[in-house]
Specification:
- With 170 residues, this protein is α/β, with parallel strands linked by helices.
- It has 2 domains: 9-126, 3-Layer(aba) Sandwich (Rossmann fold), CATH 3.40.50; 128-170, no CATH class.
- Helices cover 38% and strands 18% of the residues.
- It has 5 helices and 5 strands, in the order ββαβαβαβαα.
- The protein has helices at 50-67, 79-88, 103-117, 128-133, 141-155; strands at 9-15, 30-38, 72-75, 93-97, 121-125.
- A 5-stranded parallel β-sheet has the order 3-2-1-4-5, sandwiched between helices.
- It is globular and about 55 Å long.
Length: 170
Amino acid sequence: MTAPKPGRPTALLITDEDCRVEDFALSALDVGAVATLSASDLRSPLPVSDLVLRFEAGALADAARRCGYPATALRADDPAALTKWAAAAGATQIATAYVTRGPLLDWLDQARPALAKAGIIFTEWQRDWDTAIWPHTTAGFFKVREKIPHILAQALPDAPSEDPIPKGPR
């Protein structure tokens, strides 16, 4: 993972996997363009419900508004479109929140060669709590649950040391 570099012409990409990009130091970047990327179509071979599409579009538009930027709405259908958008904005890097695994990452991996050929670096942010949690996400929530006290101690050193989730019937 490569972190965004301050001062570089940047295209900010907001994905449906993380709509909290305002958590990151956007003011340190030279943001010249913002896009929201709709990717729900990647998750199913069947048509996606209009309700799902409207919810996704609303969440992405809200994220762009919270950041204070007008945004171009992109769809994850043609990976080359990502390069065209960023190049047209004069960006030398795309900055987005960390994308873990799954169809969106696969699609972004398809886009990377064209980005590299155009001289555009794909960069990602990761929050401290993301870094603390991801190593434990190998087998579902209950494996992560067992590690919550350790995760909290690592990500939030002032957090209580006892298990914050009571044990009981599931």
